[in-house]
Amino acid sequence: MGQEKEIMGAEPFKIKMVEPIRLIPRVERVKRMEEAYFNVFRLKPDDVYIDLLTDSGTSAMSDYQWAGLMMGDESYAGSRNFYHLEQVVQDLMGFRYVIPTHQGRPAENILFSALIQPGQMVPGNAHFDTTAAHIRHKKGIPVNLPIPEALRTGEFHPFKGNVNIGELEALLNQEGKNIPFFLMTITNNTGGGQPVSMENIRKAREITSKYRIPLYFDAARFAENAYFIKEREEGYRDRSIKAIVKEMMSHGDGCVMSAKKDGLVNMGGFICTNDEGVYQRCGELLILMEGFLTYGGLSGRDLEVMARGLEEVVSEDYLTYRIRQVRYLGERLMDAGIPIIHPTGGHAVYIDGRAFLPHIPQSQFPAQVTSVELYMEAGVRSLEIGTVAFARKDEKTGETIYPPLDLTRLAIPRRVYTDRHMDVVAEGVIRISKRKESIRGLKINWEPKVLRHFLAKFSRV
Ligand code: PLI
């Protein structure tokens, strides 16, 4: 008997509970979309067949997590579930202080309130929309420094999430005194869920240390990032995911975390820091905004399932299944000639809206149009991460500054859908592609002042 390879590749779980979904008829989908002002956030989930709006807070919990719900200690101060969470996070990430919050945004709000002075710049590889909005809310200036390959959607690069080291060094050299911290987002959600290499993290650490600038992670998808390092980076193949996570985090001073992603929970987050002063300032703000240090806006049972989710997410079997499913959808689309960000990232497949609907100008939101059409075609809800989300008016000239990428994101909830669901999604996109010449653009009729994509109302051009 030779060394035969094990048969592998199926989901590393079996399904214990199901939630029915259904495809409402096409005429109703068209009506629902018009009633929602062509904004997918305004759709009712009962009218959605396959919901790829986000991978945030949409994971299926395991039996181990559900069992943990019953172990909630709802004491106002000192809940034992907080200490479990603290121990898991310290063991996983190695940071000294752990502050629970109810999701990623309050973590950003509190940490940034503690660190940013008006007028300061916060560089990063790719800030997410809420992150950039929170930096601006503290009167700071978010600065994205992606590598050039990140903007070339069809080109392969193993670590498109990397920060541009040359530009980072130049900025720190020029503005060092005006920079409270550097934020490394792993994986980069805005640019395709693309990972950051260990080498890039290490180099960013070297430069930020030279200028005495703390390095924080936006760690929402840290486990997916670690998986790509193991898969693609020289020297990590034989390291465990946990060891890779520990090494990544050893280059940072702390993190903000939306546990709604790689925490495998429906609600939860935290801040970590090694700096006692920062911990104290954040703790005071936490009590003001979220609650006591040992619950941070969550019930004890929520803290427990978060601790258990973090234990589970670093399983290599789970991550192999997870990344493979995202890749499967990407491959189905690429085989049909659909322009997507290549390679696929950790949590989603991103269609390049301008390449997909080249006859629709960016001012008429091709990626938003794709998202709207996909709902009407197949009942699939996706999300625009492009012009609607990121275009801004230049304060001086009043001109629109367009983001470099206009993307439709198909974010895959964790442990929720099967490959057959992915086939339906791919089929929906392919059908749109066949009739795309007849598709028209959209215009905005109303928008709120911040984070307009959540609520904006559109109509057909
Ligand atoms: O949705 P929150 O407040 O738990 O987390 C905010 C947040 C911070 N950083 C990153 C990288 C995110 O992706 C993020 C939230 N993302 C959402 C909601 C998404 O749909 O991608």
Short key terms for the protein model shown above:
461 residues, 2 domains, five-stranded mixed beta sheet, three-stranded antiparallel beta sheet, 16 helices, 39% helix, globular, binds ligand PLI
Describe this structure in words.
With 461 residues, the protein is α/β, with parallel strands linked by helices. It has two domains: 26-55 and 316-460, Aspartate Aminotransferase, domain 1 (Alpha-Beta Complex), CATH 3.90.1150.10; 63-313, Type I PLP-dependent aspartate aminotransferase-like (Major domain) (Aspartate Aminotransferase, domain 2), CATH 3.40.640. The chain has helices spanning 26-35, 63-69, 80-93, 104-115, 129-137, 165-175, 198-210, 222-232, 241-250, 276-289, 300-313, 316-335, 353-356, 366-378, 387-390, 419-434, and strands at residues 50-51, 97-101, 121-124, 141-144, 182-185, 215-218, 254-258, 269-273, 348-352, 380-381, 383-385, 392-393, 400-401, 407-411, 442-446, 457-460. Strands 2-8-7-6-5 form a five-stranded mixed beta sheet, sandwiched between helices. Strand 3, helix 5 (129-137) and strand 4 (141-144) form a beta-alpha-beta unit. Helix 3 (80-93) runs parallel beside helix 11 (300-313). The N and C termini lie far apart (67 Å). The mean pLDDT is 96. It binds ligand PLI. Ligand PLI is lined by residues 54, 56, 103-105, 128, 130-131, 185, 189, 218, 220, 258, 260, 269. Ligand PLI binds next to helix 4 and helix 5.
